[in-house]
Write a structure and sequence with these properties.
The protein is an alpha/beta fold and 428 residues long. It folds into 2 domains: 157 residues, Alpha-Beta Complex (Aspartate Aminotransferase, domain 1); 243 residues, Aspartate Aminotransferase, domain 2, CATH 3.40.640. 37% of the residues lie in helices and 15% in strands. Strands 4-12-11-10-7-5-6 form a 7-stranded mixed beta sheet. A 4-stranded mixed beta sheet has the order 1-2-3-15.
């Protein structure tokens, strides 16, 4: 296998910052990609079960989306437009309303806050505080919402929070679903703190939650827990914010990950796969009565990424006019679950357990060292995976939703080989 030479420093090592991360786990130079595979500069293929951290739900260089983008660029379509009205933005808004909002009876206004997920979270938190006049936001154990200061304040991971270098105020953590292993009824602690004037919890402006915690270790909230949370927010006059940045756009089956629970959040954040093509794009959705912004009160230079509007519209047209992709994703969930179940049933040395929904799954190990070893072996065998969880103890699977059945089986087969290989080493 061709890798970066450890003897001759590359330009990545001499010029690029030490902050680089994924390239350390995958020490090759990638050159091209198509569908579910990347190729390094020497032509070696790698099956991608990382999918740009969930930003490539429809695969690399999806031909339908690529054609729309190339046609737009060839016609000298607007590339940078701030928040000006353009044909590309109009086409996207009309398609999003007709394909996503109206079929689900969702009343949301659409805001373009800036091109990344953390931009969308910052806008959501800022709006919730502006609407309610309150400061505190409740988030959950093992949550991850982004790397800017407001998003870090509602993130649980201590290492990421430490990088802020300043206090991260006005946020309070509550236990996520099953965090206490059934030691008390859902939300008992939260409700008592809200009711007790001596608890020290200021009346929150909002609660922000992921229905599946991706970076937190693929922790899946039950539908009844999410419904209970929505009811709690309603009874106590708190806005419910669902962060659907990684789990939206079909990752769990439905377009929005909260649909299964039958709830309607007050605010929703989307990014990653909303552009469909891996282009920077983010949305903040909210109920019309919350649209209290003054013109220009929250803005950004790159909140009008018109090429992303074009590919986003093409993705909606190609994949969300009917339920084909949704049904296919839910059907494949059973395929992945069966493979992981068999892995965990091999013996006590393979894995501790698995969990997931749709096409996001996690395989849990006793520690981060073992999970990292599985990912290293998978890379050697041509499969890209990453770890997650508070100790990096969970191997995360995020295959493209458009992967073929053969590619899905191939990736699961490589994962099985990697797990068994490391189990053998652990036993020796």
């Amino acid at each position: 296998m061709t890798t970066l030479s450890p003897l001759v420093p590359s330009v990545f090592e001499t010029v690029e910052s030490e902050v680089r991360s994924y390239c350390r786990a995958w020490p090759v130079v990638f050159e091209r990609a198509s569908g579910s595979r990347l190729h390094d500069e020497h032509g070696r293929p790698f099956l991608d079960f990382f999918a740009g951290a969930g930003s490539l739900n429809y695969g690399h260089n999806n031909p339908v989306l690529k054609r729309a983008l190339l046609d737009y660029l060839a016609s000298d379509g607007i590339t940078h437009g701030l928040d000006m009205s353009t044909t590309a933005k109009r086409d996207f808004l009309e398609a999003f309303r007709a394909t996503v909002l109206e079929p689900r009876a969702l009343p949301y206004k659409v805001m373009f806050p800036g091109p990344t997920g953390t931009n969308a979270v910052e806008a959501a938190l800022k709006l919730a505080r502006k609407v309610t006049g309150r400061e505190t936001v409740v988030s959950f154990t093992n949550a991850f919402h982004g790397m800017s200061l407001g998003s870090l304040a509602v993130t649980g991971n201590s290492a990421k929070r430490a990088g802020a270098g300043v206090p991260l105020p006005h946020a309070t953590r509550m236990p996520y679903d099953r965090y206490l292993d059934g030691a008390m009824p859902d939300f008992l602690w939260f409700e008592r703190m809200l009711a007790d004037p001596g608890s020290g919890l200021d009346h929150p402006a909002a609660v922000i939650v992921e229905t599946v915690q991706g970076e937190g270790g693929i922790n899946v909230a039950r539908a009844e827990w999410l419904r209970g949370l929505a009811d709690l927010c309603r009874r106590h006059d708190m806005l419910l914010v669902v962060d659907d940045i990684q789990m939206g756009c079909g990752r769990t089956g439905d377009f929005f990950s909260f649909e299964e629970a039958g709830i309607t959040p007050d605010i929703v954040t989307l990014s990653k796969s909303i552009s469909g093509y891996g282009l920077p794009m983010a949305l903040c959705l909210f109920r019309p009565e919350l649209d209290v912004w003054q013109p220009g009160e929250h803005n950004g230079t790159f909140r009008g990424n018109n090429p992303a509007f074009v590919t986003a519209t093409a993705a909606l047209d190609a994949y969300w006019r009917d339920s084909t992709l949704r049904d296919r994703t839910l059907g494949r969930a059973a395929r992945v679950e069966q493979a992981l179940s068999e892995l965990c049933g091999d013996d006590g040395r393979t894995a501790l357990g698995y969990r997931g929904r749709g096409l996001v799954w996690g395989l849990e190990f006793a520690d981060g060292e073992r999970a990292a070893a599985v990912c290293r072996r998978a890379f050697e065998l041509g499969l890209l995976l990453e770890t997650s969880g508070p100790y990096d103890e969970v191997v995360k699977l995020l295959p493209p939703l458009t992967a073929t059945d053969d590619e899905l089986d191939e990736g699961l087969g490589v994962l099985t080989r990697a797990v068994r290989h490391t189990a053998g080493r652990a036993a020796s």
